[in-house]
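Q: Hi! First time doing this. I have a protein sequence and I read that you can turn it into a structure. Is that right? Here it is:
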Amino acid sequence: MDKEEIEHIIDKAYLLIQRYFGKGKKSYPKIKLHRDIYARLSGDEEQSGEHSGTSIAEYDEITNEIYIYYPNIKNEEDLLRSLIHEYTHYLQDLTQLKIQVYAQNYDYDSNPIEIEAHKNENNWQMFSSK
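A: Yes, that's right. Below is the predicted 3D structure, encoded as structure tokens:
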């Protein structure tokens, strides 16, 4: 998918996702598209790394932003699942400390934070334009 297609889907689906899942304690997170997770984090657009080809999206609780790594989005389902997953993390209103505690006791697949986010992804078709 190209960046324009992704923006078009987000424009149509994000408001519906907000209405369906509700608002967290913070304002609604902004969505930002980036080419690469390492480029975003370093500020150097030429940076890349081990997870450059697999990072799809992330929620940053500090900036209250959802980042979509658009080159790694394959299709509408991929985008909507990622958006819902990261929006769920926004709703969880967890501090970094709580996330670290969970990470010490759970692997990714057994982490309750991730289980909830993956469960919510199953609703992706509700927000599809197809």
